[in-house]
Design brief:
This protein has no helices and eleven strands. It is mainly β.
Length: 116
């Protein structure tokens, strides 16, 4: 059974940092794309950052130069380093893994709250 387990969320003051982790079991990261999304109440889930099979990364404009996505294939874990956090970054953050054949897996979400 495939599981993605996120951790690292919490409460932080504006300007602070957090590092989210997403540990996968039941799958490997080989030939898969990965991404972090976030969602606030009443809003659609939005893409925060993604990393391709080849390692290319992309970011939402709102987080560029502040967030960094990475992965450790040996540990089957992906990360989102979040610096210079702002209150508007407050959301539930989800990791997503997708394979070329089309299967997609989501984590359960981790709450990030940034106080002003």
């Amino acid at each position: 059974q495939v599981q993605l387990v996120e951790s690292g969320g919490g409460l932080v003051q504006a300007g602070g940092s957090l590092r989210l982790s997403c540990a996968a079991s039941g799958i490997t990261f080989s030939r898969k794309t990965m991404a972090w999304f976030r969602q606030t109440p009443g809003e659609e889930r939005e893409l925060v950052a993604g990393i391709s099979i080849g390692g290319n990364t992309n970011y939402a404009d709102s987080v560029k130069d502040r967030f960094t996505i990475s992965r450790d294939t040996a540990k089957n874990t992906m990360y989102l380093q979040m610096n210079s956090l702002k209150p508007e970054d407050t959301a539930v953050y989800y990791c997503k893994v997708a394979e070329i054949a089309g299967r997609i897996w989501w984590g359960q979400g981790t709450q990030v709250t940034v106080s002003s």
